[in-house]
Amino acid sequence: MGATTYVQDADGYSPLDGSNGGIMLRGKVTMSNSYATGGDTIAGATVGLGMITKLETATASKTSDATHSYIFQPVYDSTAVNVTKVQAFWAAASGAPFIEVTNTTDLSAVVVDVLIFGT
Prior knowledge:
- The chain is an all-beta fold.
- The protein has a single domain (5-118), classed as Immunoglobulin-like (Sandwich), CATH 2.60.40.
- It has no helices and 8 strands.
- The protein has strands spanning 5-15, 23-30, 40-43, 52-62, 69-76, 83-91, 99-100, 110-118.
- The relative contact order is 0.32.
């Protein structure tokens, strides 16, 4: 199973007001060098949280391959609340449908801007 890495932006830590006293983190996730079907994992502990409650993805860039466009969606694992997966989809040509990235694909050059919410 592929695992992501996370780097927090400068001033990327924000306590949230409200009843749950959560935290918002802003940073960049780098996908793994062996993408796992269903998504690469990102653990709450990896980003300094006990639990990730929400993950939003923004733009992505890939430096070694200009032939694909990417979109991402979070996948929450209800059996392991400290783990969120980031599922990747690609399209090889303009107008082509997005499909999930093939298992074991090297996405280590793909960097995704994220907002992570948790406690």
